[in-house]
Structure to design on (616 residues):
């Protein structure tokens, strides 16, 4: 029997696997998706979307206003995201401390974990000489309108931007292993220390006993079981909630399960310029907003772009009008508007066991989005955009909550020690435990919480 | 001529092309959806689609096989205009928009084409060319990603 079984191999699962294995525990890391490597990543946007994401590419909210993207491959979403690293600020910690009653949610208490990660995780900003024109338009617009921006810190080694690498490719996996996903970092290091990895094993049942947990699921057409003394749920907001829900003996005893679902609802805006912007070339994301006014308004403005399929989905219209817009793709600059939403969402399962994410926007959410879009339109205009397109299709970035952390078992699922209330052999430390949307990229904080949780698990 | 695929009957495959042409009729630079032949690669998408969604899609495409073009254009235009409708009607419209446009645009801008198409790839027309330098790691020519069509093999 394993000491720990970890379900999910993303930013949390991969990190916990390495920490526990390094601490001498016998662990198995379970991933529902396939294992790819830099030679086998799917060759284009269509293939990567269908083969590396849950739902065959996208999952949709109950009211179909939002799409959700979840990586389904060894390494999870860390393989397909942009590897941004941001520490939480006191604004975020204050909100969490206030909501949960947990004292260690503070800059001072969490700093040692971030500092530890700074020593483990290769990172760096994109050098200014490699900002593409999309980034230059973004920074110029911010400066003209009196907003502050900062370089994004990314978990990467050498992307060879000097040799013309285009980072948009790594949305389907990095062909250079420059992006430091758990696939190339934590997991191989943990395997070298004895970690067992099981891929294409989708856990759909969990049986809890006082001294062990049994996981069961389908792996390449066969039913498999894994037993461990303890289980770490690192399958994210949707995955953790679904698994606990399917285990009726557990789900019924957790009144807060599936609640406090939150994300950073995101809408793209495109500015059309006379000269090519080529936002798809070079470093995809180099800069972001770092402005107190925007922060306090609950807004998160970023400089991004998307591949042609995603762009085509976002742009309005049909027929020749849509063709005309797509032919201008090289001339688009982009400002993404994301907000800190109210944690009012819910996750349930339908009769077939399919996840139903209910992410209706509150009045406050809608007001923030409207304000953010007005600012984005103004930013584009500030640097000479001839036309600004606001995209109606939203995406829910950074899925969070569903198993919120807290001291009160009536309003939380996970205790301050990262144990599921009433089930001390079950742990979680990923984004599912987030009590609110922080308005900051969650990856580094997930890692930090996962380190803290790992130490707690090894001590117990 | 549209042939059946692993997942689609001939009727559904024809319906896919008709619906695709309604959304993507082509212009002086870009090919029409059916002309491009990208629908031949639909099984790559359908392989990963949840079975219940796939079944609904097959029914929709089979119905589209028998609808005239003006009705398909009207359907798409109505879906596009109705995305902010409230309640269950709005939800249904948005699901249709995401499902239909998502499928057709995924195929059209995938870089894939039919065996008999010899014109310009839409990715070439819009100027989307991306790559990642790997010669220092692989000792080979620069890896070209994202603009290559899928090479369907037994391993796929």
């Amino acid at each position: 029997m394993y000491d720990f079984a970890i379900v999910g191999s993303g930013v949390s699962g991969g990190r916990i696997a390495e920490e526990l294995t390094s601490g001498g525990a016998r662990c198995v890391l379970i991933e529902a998706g396939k294992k790819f490597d830099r030679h086998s990543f799917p060759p284009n946007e269509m293939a990567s979307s269908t083969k590396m994401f849950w739902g065959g590419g996208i999952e949709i909210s109950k009211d179909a206003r939002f799409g959700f993207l979840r990586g389904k491959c060894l390494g999870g979403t860390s393989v397909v995201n942009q590897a941004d690293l941001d520490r939480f600020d006191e604004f975020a910690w204050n909100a969490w401390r206030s909501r949960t009653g947990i004292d260690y949610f503070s800059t001072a208490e969490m700093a040692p974990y971030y500092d530890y990660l700074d020593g483990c995780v290769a990172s760096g900003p994109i050098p200014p000489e490699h900002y593409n024109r999309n980034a230059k338009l973004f920074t110029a617009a911010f400066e003209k309108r009196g907003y502050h921006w900062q370089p994004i810190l990314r978990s990467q080694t050498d992307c060879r931007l000097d040799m013309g690498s285009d980072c948009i490719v790594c949305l389907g996996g990095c062909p250079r292993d420059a992006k430091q996903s758990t696939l190339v970092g934590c997991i191989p290091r943990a395997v070298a220390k004895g970690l067992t990895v099981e891929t294409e094993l989708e856990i759909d049942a969990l049986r809890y006993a006082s001294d062990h947990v049994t996981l069961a699921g389908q792996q390449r057409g066969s039913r498999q079981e894994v037993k461990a003394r303890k289980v770490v749920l690192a399958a994210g907001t949707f995955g953790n909630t679904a698994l606990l829900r399917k285990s009726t003996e557990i789900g019924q005893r957790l009144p807060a399960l599936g609640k406090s679902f939150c994300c950073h609802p995101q809408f793209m805006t495109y500015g059309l310029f006379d000269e090519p912007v080529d936002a798809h070339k070079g470093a995809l994301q180099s800069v972001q907003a770092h402005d107190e006014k925007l922060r306090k308004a609950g807004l998160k403005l970023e400089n991004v772009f998307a591949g042609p399929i995603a762009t085509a989905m976002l742009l309005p219209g049909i027929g020749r009008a849509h063709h005309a817009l797509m032919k201008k793709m090289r001339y688009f600059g982009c400002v993404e508007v994301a907000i800190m939403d109210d944690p009012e969402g819910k996750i349930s399962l339908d009769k077939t066991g399919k996840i139903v994410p209910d992410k209706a926007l509150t009045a406050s959410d809608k007001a923030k989005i409207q304000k953010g879009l007005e600012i984005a339109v103004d930013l584009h205009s500030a640097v000479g955009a001839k036309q600004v397109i606001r995209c109606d299709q939203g995406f829910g970035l950074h899925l969070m909550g569903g198993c919120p952390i807290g001291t009160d078992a009536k309003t939380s699922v996970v205790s301050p020690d990262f144990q599921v209330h009433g089930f001390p052999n079950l742990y979680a430390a990923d984004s599912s435990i987030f009590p609110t949307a922080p308005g900051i990229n969650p990856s580094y904080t997930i890692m930090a919480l996962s380190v803290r949780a790992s130490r707690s698990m090894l001590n117990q | 001529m549209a042939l059946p695929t692993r997942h689609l009957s001939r009727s559904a495959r024809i319906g896919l092309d008709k619906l695709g042409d309604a959304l993507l009729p082509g212009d002086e630079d870009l090919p029409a959806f059916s002309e491009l032949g990208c629908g031949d690669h639909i099984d790559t998408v359908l392989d990963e689609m949840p079975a219940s969604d796939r079944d609904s899609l097959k029914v929709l495409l089979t119905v589209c096989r028998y609808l005239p073009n003006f009705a398909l254009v009207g359907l798409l235009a109505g879906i596009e205009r109705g995305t902010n409708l409230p309640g269950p009607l709005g939800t249904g419209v948005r699901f249709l928009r995401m499902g239909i446009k998502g499928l057709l645009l995924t195929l059209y801008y995938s870089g894939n084409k039919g065996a008999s198409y010899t014109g310009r790839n839409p990715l070439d027309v819009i100027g989307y060319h991306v790559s990642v330098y790997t010669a220092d790691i692989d000792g080979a020519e620069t890896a070209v990603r994202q603009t290559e069509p899928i090479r369907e093999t037994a391993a796929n």
Summary: Chain A touches chain B through 57 residues (CB under 8 Å). The CA atoms of residues 173 and 198 of chain A lie 20 Å apart. The mean pLDDT of chain A is 96.
